[in-house]
Automatic annotation (TrEMBL):
It comes from the Bacteria. It comes from Oceanitalea stevensii. One of its GO terms (molecular function) is ATP binding. The keyword Flavoprotein does not apply. Gene3D superfamilies: P-loop containing nucleotide triphosphate hydrolases (3.40.50.300). Residues 1-23 are annotated as: Disordered. Its main location: membrane. This is ABC transporter ATP-binding protein. Keywords: Antibiotic resistance, ATP-binding, Nucleotide-binding, Transport. InterPro entries: AAA+_ATPase (IPR003593), ABC_transporter-like_ATP-bd (IPR003439), ABC_transporter-like_CS (IPR017871), ABC_transporter_ATP-binding (IPR050763), P-loop_NTPase (IPR027417).
Length: 318
């Protein structure tokens, strides 16, 4: 997929006609509940997404991410609570839809339409303006323009789904698991396009199960489990909630190090700490002073995966 979103004159967005970006958050979610019969899938969720942010809504399977996104997209009415997009109800389609691009987990294009016909249809359905050629180039489907949707591979269908979100370079783009099923080249290319859109001021809300993508790309993360946020903040905010670890093994006959932890086995130590730099320096100073070689020494910061794995033990936050 080539990055072909640099020619911003090719697409007519509503940005210019609005006389510059409006102040305030693009998305405001307040005490959102989503019920399916007796089952509450989203429980009192509150968050805001600021203009130009890339916000990743992460969580365990069934956490309620898609249910919350569907309300923001205007596809589902909240059971209670309020959601505002550009200060308006997301069900106010005439006001919101031209400014919001959505990539669903499955967009369901008609199987017998060609790729070019499908992309043209996006323009008619969303009210956004763009050219089919530009969008096909952006999602690297130019060579498939005359191919019927049913003949596309899984990854190609996913790129056609992505076209629905980037058509017209909208101000707000919602991507529900955008890179699932894409090979590494297509993933990198998709992120190039997203970065290009961000440079032009688009706001992105994303769900993904690829934590390294969220770790690299997101300004802020909302981590959901069983309908609520367990953590919300930057990657650093989230990883700070768990200790980092220092591991090493001591050679036989070494004096005992000044640590509040005993070796797990065979003089192999694992030290958990919220003060990685301070503890590591203390250990290295001790090893230096005592002429000790720390075998297999490693110091690992907390990763988003670790926070995710500990999600069951994290306190519930609305
Ligand atoms: N139409 C529905 N009727 C009844 N229950 C539903 C419906 N849609 C979703 N649910 C339930 O609501 C919960 C949240 O589902 P949702 O799809 O929002 O989760 P998710 O975080 O997007 O999950 P995943 O990561 O697995 O896609 C799940 O327990 C799911 O079974």
């Amino acid at each position: 997929m080539e990055h072909q979103l640099t020619d911003r004159t090719a697409a007519s967005t509503t940005r210019g006609s609005l006389g510059g970006p409006a102040p305030g958050p693009v998305v405001e979610v307040e005490a959102l509940n989503v019920d399916y019969g007796d089952f509450r899938a989203v429980k009192g969720l509150s968050f805001q997404v600021q203009r130009g942010e890339l916000y990743a809504l992460l969580g365990t399977n069934g956490a309620g991410k898609t249910s919350a996104l569907e309300v923001i997209e205007g596809h589902r009415t909240p059971s209670s609570g309020t959601v505002r997009v550009f200060g308006k109800s997301p069900t106010d389609r005439a006001a919101v839809r031209p400014r919001m691009g959505i990539m669903l987990q499955e967009s369901g294009f008609a199987a017998d339409l060609t790729v070019a016909e499908s992309v043209r249809l996006i323009g008619r359905l969303t009210g956004r303006s763009d050219t089919v050629e530009r969008v096909l180039g952006a999602v690297d489907l130019t060579r498939k323009a005359d191919t019927r949707v049913e003949q596309l591979s899984g990854g190609e269908k996913r790129r056609l789904d992505f076209a629905t979100a980037v058509y017209g370079q909208p101000e707000l783009i919602i991507l529900d698991e955008p890179t699932t099923g894409l090979d590494i080249q297509s993933r990198d290319a998709l992120w190039d396009v997203v970065e290009g859109l961000r440079q032009d001021g688009s706001t992105i809300i994303l769900t993904t199960h690829y934590l390294e993508e969220a770790q690299q790309r997101a300004d802020r993360i909302g981590l959901m489990h069983q309908g609520t946020f367990r953590h919300q903040g930057t990657v650093a905010d989230l990883t700070r909630t768990l200790p980092a670890s220092i591991r090493f093994t001591l050679p036989p006959g070494t004096p005992t190090p000044p640590l509040a932890t005993a070796p797990a086995h065979d003089a192999a130590y694992q030290l958990e700490t919220y003060q990685l730099q301070r503890e590591l320096k203390r250990l290295l100073d001790w090893a230096d002073t005592n002429g000790v070689e720390l075998l297999d020494l490693s110091a690992a910061p907390t990763r988003l995966d670790d926070v995710f794995r500990a999600i069951d033990t994290a306190p519930v936050r609305s």
